[in-house]
Amino acid sequence: MEVGKLVAIIGDEDTVAGFLLAGVGHRTADKCNFIIVKPDTKQDLIDQTFRDFSERDDVGIILINQHVANNMRHVLKDYNQTIPTVLEIPSKDHPYDPEQDYIMQRVNMFIGGGM
Strands of 6-11's sheet, edge to edge? Predict the structure, then answer.
């Protein structure tokens, strides 16, 4: 039987808690599908977590708070896989800005629109 893929979350505490309450969380003895990014979270840990999520066969979507994604553009710009799909989402304290979303920039480039 085909089993669905997980949604992985890289975000602030409120965002991750909301998705966990919605039932998106998954944890085994050695890994989970989320990371809570706090102001003191090391950027290397965030970058490595993204790489780990992007290499997992059981992850289909990676959700990243846009303000977190802004600090890891160097990693996101090199990412060219379709699955897992990376989506930037707003947080409670940081509204969504489509001009900062690299995926939206690429979409606009392909359809010939300007931002």
Answer: 34-36, 6-11, 59-65, 85-89
